[in-house]
Specification:
The chain has 13 helices and seven strands. By secondary structure, the chain is an alpha/beta fold. It folds into three domains: 104 residues, Nucleotidyltransferase, domain 5, CATH 3.30.420.40; 92 residues, Methane Monooxygenase Hydroxylase, Chain G, domain 1; 118 residues, no CATH class. The protein has a five-stranded mixed beta sheet with strand order 3-2-1-4-5. Strands 6-7 form a two-stranded antiparallel ribbon. The longest helix is centred in the middle third of the chain and has 33 residues. The mean pLDDT is 90.
Length: 337
């Protein structure tokens, strides 16, 4: 059995091959894109295990290498945890490949879950929708700024079709501002159409997932939060406990413990920020709609206004654990008696 450490880059990659005794057999550099790396690995005449860091496009590389006849195991390592293990002033591709190979040989690789191609596409579409929403919000802010700069009141309902028509007829002092307003309105309409198109495709994907109906019984959880949770959790069985789900989404506090004393800090912020954001938004809705959740929120926040943000993150963590438990058991949300 060979152990291969791979430091993969778009134009140049480094390979370090160890034998079954952990000794370096060969170190080489592959000049070219990833298909050339896959071709080189396909020439190995012994079964091998391989490890590389997760980066942009790691799913593509994982799928291609895993299909090789001699590939016994392909592992994707968590880049953040690798940096903690191998914090060093000597860092370049050849050394990185050697370190990854040694970690693989010692079976000490901090692994990353690699979802299948369909789930990866689902995640990308969810993130793309968030990008479109961010652009649309920026355009809306530009329009508000132009209106405010000319002492024109901007009503909250101004994004309806009727209001957009009215915006086109707003009198501005210069032709330059009028052109900027017209272009901003056009961009707003284009982005809105793109968001609807993406949401239509997301609805098709969500319709084929049985967990959607289940999770949407939770107060505050709508289609956007449920689909994001399902896409990133993927297989709930990979989490041994509910708290691991909260940790995966970065909803648990940092802990500094020494000499029997522990101090909790801000949340870790690990994992996908999109899901964390959606869960916190859903938590506010759940507090308003469900008496049980509201009681939990008030117990955590107490009478201290400064603890409201802490309490809402705790509610988001609670919802994440509940949703994971529901996916395991298949039970719907149980309302208090």
């Amino acid at each position: 059995m060979l152990y291969v450490g791979l430091d993969a880059h778009q134009k140049r990659s480094s390979l370090c091959i160890l034998n079954q005794d952990g000794k370096v057999v060969k170190q080489e550099q592959v000049n070219g894109p990833w298909p050339m790396v896959v071709d080189r690995l396909g020439k190995l005449d012994q079964p091998f295990r391989l490890c590389f860091e997760a980066s942009c496009g790691y799913g593509y590389l994982y799928d291609r290498i895993a299909k090789l006849p001699m590939a016994s195991q392909v592992t994707v390592a968590h880049p953040g945890q690798l940096r903690l293990i191998f914090k060093s002033k000597r860092k370049f591709d050849r050394v990185d490949a050697l370190k990854i190979g040694k970690l693989l040989y010692l079976d000490e690789v901090p692994r990353v879950h690699v979802p299948n191609l369909d789930v990866r596409g689902w995640r990308k579409l969810i993130e793309f929708r968030q990008t479109l929403l961010g652009r649309r919000t920026a355009v809306k802010n530009q329009i508000r700024a132009m209106l405010r700069g000319n002492a024109i009141p901007a009503a909250r309902w101004q994004w309806s079709k009727k209001a957009i028509v009215a915006l086109r007829q707003v009198e501005l002092p210069t032709d330059a501002e009028k052109l900027a307003m017209d272009l901003a309105i056009e961009e707003l309409s284009e982005l809105t159409a793109k968001v609807k198109r993406v949401e239509k495709e997301l609805a098709k994907i969500a319709a084929g997932h049985p967990g959607m109906t289940l999770l949407m019984t939770v107060p505050g959880i709508g289609i956007r939060t449920a689909e994001a949770f399902l896409a990133y959790v993927d297989d709930v069985r990979r989490f041994a406990r509910g708290r691991q789900v909260g940790a995966y989404f970065g909803l648990v506090p940092c802990l500094d413990s020494s000499a029997g004393k522990g101090r909790y800090g801000h949340i870790t912020g690990d994992g996908p920020p999109t899901v964390r954001k959606l869960l916190c938004e859903a938590a506010w809705i759940a507090v308003r709609r469900d008496p049980q959740v509201k009681a939990r929120f008030e117990r955590i926040a107490g009478d201290d206004p400064d603890r409201r943000k802490i309490a809402i993150v705790a509610i988001a963590h609670y919802l994440a654990r509940v949703m994971a438990a529901m996916l395991r058991s298949g039970e719907v949300w149980r309302k208090p008696a």
